[in-house]
Amino acid sequence: MPSGEKGKDMAKVDELKTEIEKLSREDFSELTRWLSEKDWERWDKEIEADSATGRLDFLVREAFEAKAKGTLKDL
Q1: DSSP-assigned letter for residue 54
Q2: Which residue of 8, 25, 38, 56 has the fewest CB atoms within a 10 Å radius of its CB?
């Protein structure tokens, strides 16, 4: 991203922060819930992508190794 675009994005973030400060308690709570949902959606997509590309395969191997050693703990 060119540095000029980054500056514009930061200016936009600063504008959003200013507007958020003006929100009522109820609107702020709603925004917080919405942002949390969006954050979890992005996290889920990252996990799905990492899983599809094999980036998480090491976790499966570790679990099988722990099970074979008898050190796998119940959740």
Answers
A1: T
A2: 25
Instruction: Enter the tokens of residue 25.
Output: 């308690």
* Single-letter code of the amino acid located at 30: E
pLDDT digits (tens, 9 = 90+) for 28-39: 999 999 999 999
d(CA 3, CA 43): 27
Q: Residue ranges of the domains in the chain?
A: 25-75
What sign results for the dihedral spanned by CA atoms 30, 5, 49, 47?
Answer: negative
Write the single-letter amino acid at 44: D
What gap in Å lies between CA 11 and CA 28, rounded to an integer? 21
Evaluated on CA atoms 40, 45, 49, 51, the torsion sign reads positive
The pLDDT assigned to 1 comes to 53
